[in-house]
Amino acid sequence: MSSPHRHLPPAPVRERAACMCVHGDSCSSFAPGHALHLIQARLASATPSEWVDAIVESTDAVAGVVVLRTVSATEQVELWSGSGAAHQATPGAPVALHGRYGVLAVGSLRFNVAVSRSNAAQRR
């Protein structure tokens, strides 16, 4: 005969969890713009036709913002990354963006990014 289990209520949450990248440490979240998840990186590498070549227009390392201009569509894309993409990307450098999975490739480095803004260029 088994004894009945007492139901233990979940511990109350006293504070909201915050990602450590806000404090300059490594990210503890896999939300868009934070740490790059292994599965996210693998999915991006498994779909090579969806990478878009771009040139870095500007960066703001304090805010974590990278502004790109795509090569093929001449679209301006503003990205946010708390994991250091703005420190690695330099204006004028070629990069690649995987729009579906939110991955920015800067050389051999990969970053999880959140698209803040995307403006298609006006065509004449």
From TrEMBL:
Q: What is this protein called?
A: Uncharacterized protein
